[in-house]
C-alpha cells in the first residue's frame, strides 16, 4: 500500500531559481539580464530588471543558497548608474532572460513619471487670519502661506 503524502502550510509564491543557481549554469554572468517573478507580475508597463555585474556564490553552503551578487538595476524604466548589491539573491524567484531576447526585453517603452501633486500653498485658519489683522504689519494681509517640503532620502527599490 502506497504512503499518502500530505503537505502542510501554504504554497510558496516563489517560482524560479536563486541568482546563484542561475550563475552556476553560466560561463560568465557579467552583462546578463535577470528579473524576479514579482516584478514581472506587476501591472506597471515599465519593466524592472537587473543587469548582473558579478556573482560570487558561497561554496560552503549547500545548493548555492548564499553569496554576494552585484549589478546595475533598472527600476520601471529608470537606469541607475551605481552598482548595487542584490540582497534578495537567495530567493527562489529569479529568471534569466535568454541572450537572443535581451535586446527586446531591455527596450524601454515606458518610463516612471514622478509627479508632485502636493499643494504649494496652505490657507491659514480663519482665527489666525483675524488675529493677524489686529497687527499693523505687512503680514497682517496674509491669508495663505507657501509650504516647504523636506527632501526625503531615496527608498530602497530592490
List keywords for this structure.
8 strands, 2 domains, 158 residues, two-stranded antiparallel ribbon, alpha+beta, 4 helices, single chain, six-stranded antiparallel sheet, 15% helix
Give structural notes:
- 15% of the residues lie in helices and 22% in strands.
- The strands form 2 sheets. Strands 1, 2, 3, 4, 5 and 6 form a 6-stranded antiparallel beta sheet that branches.
- The radius of gyration is 26 Å and the shape is elongated.
- With 158 residues, it is of the alpha+beta class.
- It folds into 2 domains: 19-106, no CATH class; 116-148, no CATH class.
- The chain has helices at 19-24, 37-40, 102-106, 126-134; strands at residues 33-36, 49-57, 67-75, 78-79, 84-85, 94-96, 121-123, 144-146.
Helix/strand layout:
Blueprint: H1 19-24, E1 33-36, H2 37-40, E2 49-57, E3 67-75, E4 78-79, E5 84-85, E6 94-96, H3 102-106, E7 121-123, H4 126-134, E8 144-146
Antiparallel strand pairs: 1-2, 1-6, 2-3, 3-4, 3-5, 7-8
